Amino acid sequence: GVVLGCRSLGMVYAEGKLRTPVFDRLDLSVREGETVAILGASGAGKSTLLHLLGGLDTPTEGEVFVAGHRMSALSDAARGALRNRALGFVYQFHHLLPEFTALENVMLPVMLNGREVAEATERARILLESVGLGHRLGHKPGELSGGERQRAAVARALVNRPACVLGDEPTGNLDEKTAATVFDLMLGLNREQRTSLVLVTHDRRLARRLDRVLELHDGKLRELQPDEV
Ligand code: ADP
Ligand code: ADP
């Protein structure tokens, strides 16, 4: 089935008299296990789309669906709980909490999901091991390398076995070799868990490795054929 999508999505940023419409009745459906890349020029609205799909912002028109729920029909608390349970986020910057260890950072979404400490610890440890950080459990973000921090962020995004991960240039801050390693890890884990992925990127080589490539242009999403990517 469809795990994430939007229908007739519209977003208008209003600042005083200036109105910036970003989308033109946008439709998108992401199926279970499907990986989707979103390309587009700077300012095309990629980050805005990801924020709306992730429930971090409210569209001015249309609807966002996450795991069968209409986001606008939920209370703030219910939307927050659904985001934590059904979605994972990986940004260009890791957003790990600096005072917590890698293990604690990855445990947090599990705890917020109402699980016991023992289960959260075990799942966080397994995920961190599978991203190659089994020897860094007690390290705080400041004690990790850039690549290690992004791998911890990937573990955190996947620890609740979400329906879909939303990635905004998750490897954009890393050198080419580290970026390739982190990307391979993320894609491998996503496929293994059958977690869907929506990835905003400007890197066509990364985009090409996903199931579908869409381009955001003039407020519309267009599916690119393999020879166009
Ligand atoms: P992209 O991620 O593709 O670079 P964005 O989603 O950041 O694009 O931005 C899309 C458009 O919306 C741009 O014209 C940008 O200036 C505008 N925009 C984004 N965020 C805001 C905001 N908070 N207030 C006003 N305009 C915004
Ligand atoms: P941008 O890419 O637009 O410059 P950031 O990547 O810093 O901004 O963050 C994107 C948005 O996601 C911000 O509104 C931020 O508050 C929010 N955010 C950051 N981390 C999380 C998180 N773990 N869960 C939910 N929202 C987050």
From TrEMBL:
Residues 6-229 form the ABC transporter domain. This is Lipoprotein-releasing system ATP-binding protein LolD. It is found in: Cell inner membrane. It is a peripheral membrane protein. The gene is lolD. Its EC number is 7.6.2.-. GO terms for biological process: lipoprotein localization to outer membrane; protein localization to outer membrane. Keywords: ATP-binding, Cell inner membrane, Cell membrane, Lipoprotein, Membrane, Nucleotide-binding, Translocase, Transport. Belongs to the ABC transporter superfamily. Lipoprotein translocase (TC 3.A.1.125) family. One of its GO terms (molecular function) is ATP hydrolysis activity. One of its GO terms (cellular component) is plasma membrane. The keyword Lipoprotein applies. The complex is composed of two ATP-binding proteins (LolD) and two transmembrane proteins (LolC and LolE). InterPro entries: AAA+_ATPase, ABC_transporter-like_ATP-bd, ABC_transporter-like_CS, ABC_transpr_LolD-like, LolD_lipo_ATP-bd, MacB-like_ATP-bd, P-loop_NTPase. Part of the ABC transporter complex LolCDE involved in the translocation of mature outer membrane-directed lipoproteins, from the inner membrane to the periplasmic chaperone, LolA. Responsible for the formation of the LolA-lipoprotein complex in an ATP-dependent manner.
